[in-house]
Design a protein that fits this description.
Alpha-Beta Plaits; two-stranded antiparallel ribbon; 3-stranded antiparallel sheet; alpha+beta; 17% strand
């Protein structure tokens, strides 16, 4: 590149406004078809587990509370998800979709990336059962 052309670019850029956007302070609306956080509707889920089989990143787990009553809790690992929406396409009952509003998923720790979807009482039941199993294992090993 010739020095004259470079100096011309430098002088022109001195009088232009910067192109950089002040992102957290000036937000633009997200695109309509943006694939953000996975959303789950437990009332529509039949427990077929096609979403789990088709997930290339192994980011979805379906925990069964009561198969007869169709009570399921989905454990979603945001840090593993590639946001490919393959699970949404393979779901026959439309209980999965990708949010275009929740796409800012940065965190300082890894714990918030594991999300439990389901009815509150079902999630609480599974968490209590896991806590009992952990304390039971400690007592057996002592």
């Amino acid at each position: 590149m010739a020095i004259g052309a470079m100096l011309g670019d430098i002088l022109r850029s001195l009088f232009k406004r910067p192109v950089t956007e002040l992102y957290p302070f000036q937000r633009k609306p997200a695109p309509e078809m943006l694939r953000g956080k996975l959303m789950y509707d437990p009332s529509k889920c039949s427990g077929c587990q096609l979403c789990i089989k088709d997930c290339p990143a192994d980011a979805i787990e379906l925990l069964v509370v009561d198969k007869v009553a169709k009570k399921f809790v989905m454990r979603y690992h945001e840090d593993r998800c590639t946001f490919c929406a393959q699970c949404v396409q393979s779901c026959r009952f439309n209980c999965l979709n990708m949010s275009n509003e929740q796409w800012e998923l940065a965190q300082l720790k890894r714990e918030p990336f594991e999300v439990m979807y389901g009815r509150d009482e079902d999630v609480q039941f599974l968490l209590e059962r896991a806590a009992r199993a952990e304390t039971g294992n400690v007592e057996c090993g002592a």
